[in-house]
Amino acid sequence: MPTSESTRRAFIFGAATIGASALLLGVQRVLNSGFADENANTDAGPVKIQKFADDGSALEIVNVPKVRKNLEAWKKQLPPLSYEVTRHADTEWAFSGALDKEYRPGLYRCIDCENALFSSAAKFDSGTGWPSFWSPIAPGNLYEKRSITFGSVLREVKCTLCDAHLGHVFPDGPKPTGLRYCMNSAALHFFPRASG
């Protein structure tokens, strides 16, 4: 049978834990609101993107409307994992994606809208289990959405054309950028470059 002292300690510890959690969530909400203007990229467009041929050669820069569909339409278009990753910001398991060890020359496009995102020339083996790139093929073809989670700043990477969640970017990549765009294979469509 618990003593009144142990019950009192458990109550105090529980109350302190709840109070600290509420304080952390409140601080996190305030900090996230500080990123609200920076993260604003949800208008209907038009947006400016760089077009690329499947061989990776740059085409024109165009202003186009954003690709907008309801969730049911996305769900019909995409494989289940791609839907969960790109539309609900899920993450595939490390080392499970088909593109983690893909090193043929080619172009990586958004699986939702075919917007060009990365070239194989910027791909490297980060050892993390996800396809990693030190730079996007065109900076305007994707954007970052910053948030605070448990005191850490997260830099979510999203497709400019359709707002698909692609992965995250971290400041621990190789030169020349020092960045690691850590992407989900389920968010990408790889177009190998034809040889010859």
Structure description:
- There is one protein chain.
- A hairpin with a 7-residue loop joins strand 5 and strand 6 (132-133).
- This protein is α+β, with helices and mostly antiparallel strands and 196 residues long.
- The N and C termini lie far apart (80 Å).
- The strands form 3 sheets. A 6-stranded antiparallel β-sheet has the order 5-6-10-9-8-7. Strands 4-3-11 form a 3-stranded antiparallel β-sheet, with no helix packed on it.
- The protein has 4 helices and 11 strands, in the order ααββααβββββββββ.
- The chain has helices at residues 4-34, 36-39, 71-77, 80-88; strands spanning 47-52, 58-64, 106-110, 116-119, 123-124, 132-133, 142-149, 152-159, 165-170, 180-183, 188-192.
- It has one domain (35-192): Metal Binding Protein, Guanine Nucleotide Exchange Factor, Chain A (Beta Complex).
- Helix content is 26%, strand content 29%.
- The radius of gyration is 21 Å and the shape is globular.
Largest sheet: 6 strands, antiparallel
Structural class call reads: alpha+beta
Beta-sheet strand percentage? 25-35%
How many domains? The number is 1
Mean pLDDT: 85
Low-confidence stretches: 20-41
Order of helix and strand elements from N to C terminus: HHEEHHEEEEEEEEE
What is the terminal-to-terminal distance?
Answer: 80 Å
Q: Helical element count?
A: 4
Q: What proportion of the residues is helical, as a percent range?
A: 25-40%
Q: What topology, given as strand order, has the largest sheet? A: 5-6-10-9-8-7
Classified in CATH, the superfamily is: Peptide methionine sulfoxide reductase
CATH architecture call: Beta Complex
The CATH class designation is Mainly Beta
Number of strands: 11
**Annotated CATH topology:** Metal Binding Protein, Guanine Nucleotide Exchange Factor, Chain A
Shape: globular
